[in-house]
């Protein structure tokens, strides 16, 4: 038996049109990883504005594309887009399906990753805005076993979303660490959608046959854990030995011990075989028991960000840009506005590489060369919103007195900053709080 998994999302806001190609290709499970490391902070801002939010609001777009296939029983869907509010996300999906005239679909909301109420137990500070633990595949497996067609979770580890259906379909043991490692490997390869199929390939990226229609990845997995990574026929991108091995090393600290809630995977034992025609075989996974603790993530308030962008033209564009930002900073200082830190950026004069090419740059300047324009950005961090607003208000018209500005300065409203911190959580108390609600439409 072969189970076909489709990697349908790399994060909140990912492109949805390629999902239709996965559905048309006939995957058994559409797996959507909506949560990057910082996504919960974005969702927290939503929840602060409206307590009924806190989930990835593009989730309905994915469900709508997949709804017919799910309702017909051809496919199931798994997503951690529930974020900080999985139950409300599930209710939203149920309402969508009802409005589409679809009945008979069961939606599971999986909760228990939120441990803010026990924050002190884990050494989380009292001012934490959220505190969530990365759960493993077993919580998704439980929902599938209960008959869920759509599983919506909070913070479940990315790769575990893909491992769960393999354990469910093949009946793998939770102590068969080699097979679990095979599933984690597949999940790691697919969790960033088109990255494994060439979207960020550092090699011959220009050989993409259709960059306007990216192909999201498919993993064809057998009971032994051997997988073939591919993509829907006729779509853009490329699945090769190089694109797969690049993704394999993405966000990996130790390839010999990739830590996951379900096992510790050894990527150095893998064999990759390029079969041609956008098909790469992945085999030989080795695994060992998982860490004794779960990883957790919490956020603290970190002040407010303000920024302004100026564009200056030749002549003396760079000098004027530096002076403009200096004047803004000195005005804030003269008025006693408390600014914790500043950030200056200059685009057009070595901004991306600093002055790494100093010799060439200096030679060009000696010959009279000047950049035709400079974009200068000044950002600042304050403890409260009013101070951040005040800095921007006093420096906002700065470009007008300077000669040859290109347009008016662009100033955005201040936004709240959060600092993210990791913590470790004992597994048993967390597992005991996991619960699931099964909704039906």
Tell me about this structure.
The chain has 12 helices and 19 strands. It has 441 residues and is an alpha+beta fold. The protein has 2 domains: 290 residues, no CATH class; 123 residues, TT1725-like (Alpha-Beta Plaits). The strands form 3 sheets. A 10-stranded mixed beta sheet has the order 11-12-8-7-1-2-3-6-4-19, with helices on both faces. Strands 5, 14, 15, 16, 17 and 18 form a 6-stranded antiparallel beta sheet that branches. Strands 9-10-13 form a 3-stranded antiparallel beta sheet, with helices on one face. Helix 5 crosses helix 6, helix 6 packs across helix 7 and helix 9 packs across helix 11.
Characterize this entry briefly.
Helices cover 31% and strands 26% of the residues. It is of the alpha+beta class. A hairpin with a 5-residue loop joins β11 (271-274) and β12.
The number of helical segments is: 12
Rounded to an integer, what's the Rg over CA atoms? 25 Å
As laid out across the biggest beta sheet, the strand order is 11-12-8-7-1-2-3-6-4-19
Number of domain modules: 2
Can you give the mean pLDDT? 92
Helix content: 25-40%
Structural class: alpha+beta
Q: Which percent band covers the strand fraction? A: 25-35%
Work out the number of β strands: 19
Oligomer: single chain
Distance between the termini: 31 Å
The major beta sheet can be summarized as:
10 strands, mixed
| Coarse shape | globular
């Amino acid at each position: 038996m072969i189970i076909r998994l489709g990697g349908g999302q790399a994060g909140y806001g990912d492109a949805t049109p390629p999902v239709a190609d996965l559905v048309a290709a006939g995957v058994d499970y559409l797996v959507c990883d909506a949560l990057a490391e910082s996504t919960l902070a974005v969702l927290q801002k939503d929840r602060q504005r409206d307590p009924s939010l806190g989930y990835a609001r593009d989730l309905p777009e994915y469900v709508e594309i997949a709804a017919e296939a799910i309702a017909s029983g051809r496919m199931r869907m798994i997503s951690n887009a529930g974020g900080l509010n999985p139950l409300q996300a599930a209710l939203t999906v149920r309402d969508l399906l009802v409005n589409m005239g679809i009945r008979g679909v069961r939606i599971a909301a999986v909760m228990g990753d939120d441990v803010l109420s026990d924050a002190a137990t884990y050494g989380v500070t009292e001012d934490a805005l959220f505190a969530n633990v990365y759960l493993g595949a077993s919580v998704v497996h439980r929902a599938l076993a209960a008959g869920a067609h759509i599983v919506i979770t909070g913070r479940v580890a990315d790769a575990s979303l893909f491992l769960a259906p393999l354990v469910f379909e093949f009946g793998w043991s939770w102590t068969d660490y080699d097979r679990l490692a095979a599933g984690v490997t597949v999940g790691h390869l697919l969790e960033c959608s088109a990255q494994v199929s060439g979207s960020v390939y550092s090699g011959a990226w220009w050989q993409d046959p259709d960059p306007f229609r990216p192909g999201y990845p498919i993993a064809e997995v057998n009971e032994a854990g051997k997988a073939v990574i591919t993509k829907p026929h006729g779509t853009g991108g490329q699945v090769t030995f190089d694109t797969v091995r690049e993704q394999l090393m993405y966000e990996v600290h130790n390839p010999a011990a990739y830590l996951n809630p379900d096992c510790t995977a050894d990527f150095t034992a893998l064999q990759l075989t390029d079969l041609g025609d956008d098909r790469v075989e992945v085999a030989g996974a080795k695994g060992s028991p998982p860490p004794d603790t779960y990883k957790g993530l919490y956020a603290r308030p970190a002040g407010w960000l303000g920024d302004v962008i100026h564009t200056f033209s030749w002549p003396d564009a760079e000098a004027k840009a530096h002076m403009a930002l200096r004047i803004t900073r000195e005005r804030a200082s003269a008025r006693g506005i408390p600014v914790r830190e500043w950030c200056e950026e200059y685009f057009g004069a070595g901004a991306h590489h600093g002055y790494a090419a100093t010799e060439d740059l200096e030679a060009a300047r000696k010959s009279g060369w000047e950049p035709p324009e400079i974009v200068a950005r000044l950002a600042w961090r304050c403890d409260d919103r009013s101070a951040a607003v005040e800095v921007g208000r006093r420096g906002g018209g700065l470009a007008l007195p300077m000669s040859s500005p290109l347009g008016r300065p662009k100033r955005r409203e201040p936004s709240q900053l959060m600092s993210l911190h990791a913590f470790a959580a004992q597994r048993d108390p967390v597992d005991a709080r996991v619960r699931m609600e099964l909704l039906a439409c």
